[in-house]
Amino acid sequence: MESGKLLIYIGLAIVAVGIVWYLFGDKLGWIGNLPGDINYKGENSRVYFPITTMLLLSVLASLAMWLFRKFF
Known about the structure:
Radius of gyration: 16 Å
Strand content: 5-15%
Low-confidence stretches: none
Number of helices: 2
Strand order of the largest sheet: 1-2
Order of helices and strands: HEEH
Structural class: mainly alpha
Largest sheet: 2 strands, antiparallel
Distance between the termini: 11 Å
Number of strands: 2
Oligomer: single chain
Mean pLDDT: 90
Number of domains: 2
Helix content: 55-70%
């Protein structure tokens, strides 16, 4: 694939994510607060590992890439 086309596709994906975030940002508060996400607050520190959220996003990204390759 030409690098120009790749940059256009990446730009379109960023715009799509931005539109979804703008339109549905208030309804997406559960992202990052799923069961399995580790959140520890100490006196002087805070540790956050969004394990479940990253697994979910990875599955969705893999599905999107599979669909993209299938149709394009």
